[in-house]
Amino acid sequence: MLPSTATGSQGLEALARDIAGCRLCDAYGLPVTHVAPLVQSRVATAELLLVGAQPDKADVKAGRPLSGAAGRRLLEWLVIAGLGATAAEAAGRCRLTWLAHCHLPGGRRLSQAAQNCYAFLAREIHLAPPAACVTLGPVPLAALFGFRGPLEHAVGRRWTEADFGVELFRILPQGCPIVPLPAPSAASPWLRRPGNVQRLRRALSTLAGTLSTLRQDVGPSPGAS
Hints:
By secondary structure, this protein is α/β, with parallel strands linked by helices. It has eight helices and four strands. The chain has helices at 8-21, 24-27, 57-62, 69-80, 87-91, 110-127, 138-145, 196-218, and strands at residues 48-52, 94-98, 132-136, 178-181. Strands 2-1-3-4 form a four-stranded parallel beta sheet. Helix 7 links the parallel strand 3 and strand 4 (178-181). The termini are far apart. The model has no long low-confidence stretch (mean pLDDT 89).
């Protein structure tokens, strides 16, 4: 199937249809649960792109992103970082996407599923280029930018693809800032480790500074007071 040539919100809607029709993981024998695509076509101009590993179980069940406990925790972080004054406002200014658009129980063979979905992610970023990118947990950092160190070494500072040593086949716009965060899932032990709550606070402060700089460069986002 050839990808649609539509752009903007129409292009994202076409992308969602193509994701819905994809069965490449079935051909690889991956234990995926096919879900309705959660591509957010209505926020093509969002300030922030969030990249997770795969849709959360609660999002799959509800059929919409940021609907479960992990999504609420993430929105709380984004409010602290100043993306919006409320969770609803922050949700309207970000796009959540994933390395793999279907759900794999326990994340089994996620790397292969992410490879199968890579063209979808690249197309989504082309259709809706982000002003800044937030990665959620270590998996997107490794898959997209080749970062293999402890997450503690990445969280708390701002990066670009060049900082990660990505020279060829960059997926983000030139110079796009990347702010790594931990995965917001309660199942993740990362925040329970010594010093990591402080690292998260630094990361949210870094994200706040990044958003402030971007807004000074381009003016206030739609709906901002």
